[in-house]
């Protein structure tokens, strides 16, 4: 990027604003660049924060100069990292449990094959953590990790945390599942193109989309105050998107 070359050339007298522009561009492409976007901007951020105003002039430290040169030399090779990864297809579901005396497990699909046995005396003296799995009662729960379950054949009602929206969509596409997904109206979010094209039309697997009325009768406060629904009524539009993947 030209801005990085300018920073390198003016290393002894560069405004903090120019450094902020460069780091902002790099971080904005973090999904494509990968973890290095944050790893190799730390010294630049520290230098930027060392002055009270962005108009102040700074001199690049050795570490911040190394970061600038890293991006100049490697930027073109890092761009193009995969942003989305397909979810695995679920072939077999198995359940297992253990007690202080023995263990057991079975598979659902393969004729409910069963395996069981007793702990040897040495294992019985160990902690429950050592003896593999610890079970706990969770009424109404079908499983611990919903992404390991098969959602096909169900009319799924999905209200995931915002950071899991893209993973939910990938799971539905890969396994050809259907359901209604509740998402905030955030056109700038990285997962927005999964639903809407640049011209505003919806992707082929979307068969319906509507706004949910914003009212206290519709939304209840969540358990985390800082969450989107932490205080009940959200401050933005909320969409109900009907997804049918075939």
What can you tell me about this protein's structure?
It is built from 8 helices and 9 strands. It is α+β, with helices and mostly antiparallel strands. A 4-stranded mixed beta sheet has the order 6-7-9-8, covered by helices on one side. Strand 4 and strand 5 form a beta hairpin. The radius of gyration is 25 Å and the shape is extended.
Give a brief rundown of this model:
The chain has 246 residues and is of the alpha+beta class. Helices cover 28% and strands 17% of the residues. It has helices spanning 2-9, 16-28, 30-33, 36-39, 42-48, 62-78, 121-124, 165-175, and strands at residues 14-15, 57-58, 94-98, 102-107, 114-118, 156-158, 178-184, 206-211, 238-244.
Beta strand %: 15-25%
Rg over C-alpha atoms, rounded to the nearest angstrom: 25 Å
Mean pLDDT: 83
- Binned, the helix content reads 25-40%
The biggest beta sheet reads: 4 strands, mixed
By secondary-structure content and strand pairing, the structural class works out as alpha+beta
User: What is the molecular shape?
Assistant: extended
SSE order: HEHHHHEHEEEHEHEEE
Widest sheet: strand ordering: 6-7-9-8
Distance between the termini: 42 Å
Q: What is the total tally of β strands? A: 9
pLDDT under 50 segments (min length 5)? 133-137
User: What is the number of helical segments per DSSP (H or I, 4+ residues)?
Assistant: 8
């Amino acid at each position: 990027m030209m801005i990085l070359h300018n920073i390198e050339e003016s290393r002894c007298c560069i405004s903090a604003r120019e450094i902020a522009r460069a780091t902002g561009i790099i971080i904005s492409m973090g999904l494509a660049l990968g973890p290095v976007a944050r790893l190799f901007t730390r010294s630049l951020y520290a230098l930027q924060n060392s002055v009270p105003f962005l108009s102040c002039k700074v001199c690049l430290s050795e570490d911040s100069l190394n970061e600038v040169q890293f991006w100049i030399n490697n930027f073109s090779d890092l761009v193009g990292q995969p942003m989305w990864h397909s979810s695995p297809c679920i072939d077999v579901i198995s359940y297992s449990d253990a007690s202080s005396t023995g263990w057991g497990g079975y598979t659902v699909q393969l004729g409910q094959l069963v395996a069981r046995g007793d702990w040897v005396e040495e294992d019985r003296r160990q902690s429950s953590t050592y003896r593999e799995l610890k079970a706990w009662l969770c009424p109404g729960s079908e499983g611990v990790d919903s992404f390991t379950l098969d959602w096909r054949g169900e009319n799924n009602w999905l209200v995931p945390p915002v950071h899991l929206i893209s993973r939910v969509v990938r799971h539905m596409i890969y396994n050809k599942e259907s359901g209604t997904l509740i998402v905030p109206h955030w056109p700038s979010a990285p997962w927005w193109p999964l639903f809407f094209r640049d011209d505003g039309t919806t992707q082929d697997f979307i068969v319906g989309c509507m706004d949910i009325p914003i009212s206290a009768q519709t939304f209840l406060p969540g358990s985390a105050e800082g969450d989107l629904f932490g205080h009940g009524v959200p401050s933005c539009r909320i969409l109900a998107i009907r997804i049918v993947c075939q």
